[in-house]
Amino acid sequence: MDSAGQDINLNSPNKGLLSDSMTDVPVDTAVAAQAPAVEGLTETEAEELRAELAKVEEEIVTLRQVLAAKERHCGELKRKLGLSTLEGLKQNLSRSWHDMQVSNAYKKTQETLSQAGQKTSAALSTMGSAISRKLGDMRNSATFKSFEDRVGTIKSKVVGGRENGGDNLPSPTGSGDRPLPDHIPF
User: Which residues form a coiled coil (predicted)?
Assistant: First the structure.
């Protein structure tokens, strides 16, 4: 029987009439009737409970069949509309991501991480200020002044000698008395 001819109305006398491939394991009412009654229940109460159980199990089978029919129909509609499985997956992921972002757990985690980031930023800023202050103190120390003076002396000797023409080092631009060779080996 095709899905268009199936009656999925739960109030219909033909409810649950689907192809044999969609039926679940049948409920064996004979086994349920043979089960011993639970202590404290009369035989009449046990019969009523067994009947209700059989009815509920039958409804479950019917609902599974209806759900399967609806899922097939949904698949057919999606196929006709050209919606692929990938599109459905994208929509599901997008919807799930949105649902997660509006959840209380996500919001609390986000707030906690934001606060932790602010505290870390403040701590690093304080540490950076302390390091800058220590470097400033070190720069003003006698040892650093002595080192700075020595570097300055060496620099003035190197740069001062070039400005006076006292060195014989070739200029990086190649100007001077000697022409640069055509090829310079490395």
Answer: 39-73
Integer Cα distance of 89 and 71 in angstroms: 16
**Does residue 87 sit in the same domain as residue 131?**
no
The three-point CA angle 62-63-64 to 5° equals 90
Range of the domain at 61: 43-101
Asked if 61 contacts 24 with a C-beta cutoff of 8 angstroms, the reply is yes
Q: Per-residue pLDDT tens for 13-40? A: 554 444 444 445 555 555 545 556 567 8
CA distance 139 to 130: 14
* Residue (of 26, 28, 61, 53) closest to 69 by Cα position: 61
CB 61 within 8 A of CB 28: no
What is the reported pTM?
A: 0.30
Is the same domain home to 121 and 91?
no
Domain count for the chain = 2
